[in-house]
Sequence to fold (496 residues):
Amino acid sequence: MEAPVADDRLLHQRVVGGEEAALGEVYDRFAPLVFGLAVRITRDRAVSEDITQEVFVAFWERPLAFDPARGTLRAWLATIAHRRAVDHVRAQERRKASVLGPRLLEPEPERLEDTVLSRQEADGVRLAVGKLPDHLREVIELAYYRGRTYRQVADELGLPEGTAKSRIRLGLRRLADALAEEST
Amino acid sequence: MNDDPTPRLYLDALEETAETPRTSLRPLLLTAARARRRPAAAVSGWTAPYAGRIAAMDALLGQVGEDDWHKETVEGWTLQELLAHLAAKDGLVALAVGAPVLGPPVTVDEALARTAELQEHERRRAPGQTRRDWRTQADALCRHLAALPPDTPASVGGFPMPAVDHILARALETWLHTADAAGAVGVTLPQPVPEHITPTADLCARLMPLTMRVSGHTVAEGRAVRLVLTGPGGGRWHVPLHRHGKAVREGDVNAGAGAGGAPADATITCDVAEFCFLVGGRGEADTFAAEVEGDSGLARDLLRAAPALSGP
Fold:
């Protein structure tokens, strides 16, 4: 779940103030997400390690490029990781293409948006939600698209709060699996 | 922020399947980071508020473009000249405590004259050199001070104070000018961490008897103001305003009522960072956002006198 924005602000203040330990904390909190995201896109663990390192070094080196008033640190780091991973995949494809000879039609390069998901990918996520089994889709839709808390989801469905919570997590895992399958 | 919950859903889903990279990546990352941006010279101890502001200014300078160095900031100075001004005043503190001083030998221990001297010197150099030497001097000053007790007496520009107060004054000025520079290049500057704001605000509170005196107010013995500085790093101070008055921090603002100490003639409640900036000469006393209870004349005198020691 999303880290509270107040934590982001304090971590950011500490990193701007040159406190190395704060970078370590940012890494510990977000490296699994960043690395997992890079692996998912590049399918290459060595490349994903390089991308992970670049993402956190970039945050340390230019911490004022992040503005906590404009979004979460998690989304910001994931956006950079996404961009670098996609760049890597495209460079690979170009290399392959040049080995195979010139292409007749160069596909229109997708504009790199300032978001963790392109419009197309966001559509893919929504589609994957629609394909979840009913009992999982229901809780994900309530929790995300209708802004309900765990407690409210539980109340509306007449479930114990713990059950609602574990269903949401199961839904998230299924969703991640579906998205991973789709991208291969 | 985007209202579409899909990106948040996507990230939450990814976190459920996140993968931990091998543990040896962490130390490699920290080494690589250190090589690209120097960490603060101190993160604890009495020089930390200053070291933190130096690191923040350096982070800003690390991302400005070539053209930004020639942008006007304050006092009609370019960013490079502003940095030379900071280096000049840091250098006078360095001189007072026997730390290495940047640039040509100091001919006169006076802030504006030394600023002009160093700006003249730095204008002939590349901005990158000005930046490197300013940072080197600041870090050397931190290292030098770390070996001294904080109450080491030092006279800077004929103004005697303990070394810790000189360095807190440098922290405040670096903070103010980093905000000036950030404004000039269109970057949002986050605040210092609360642990660095508190000692800076404490210095500001302790300067009040002096700012009253140099502003021509003669305050009778026993007259005092309670300063309630709100926001992260804030607190409550009891500030006796007669010429030898010593402000004392009474505790955290959030400690609740009943934490009040000695009686005061007026209570001024305002944001801690805004109060520091007022003392640093930013903002107008007459339109300053403060809540006043009790003797409003005394409170107004204090707020108007607050910037009395601020220079460029």
Notes: Residues 197-309 of chain B form a domain with the Nonspecific Lipid-transfer Protein; Chain A fold (CATH 3.30.1050.10). Chain B has a mean pLDDT of 93. Chain B touches chain A through 55 residues (CB under 8 Å).
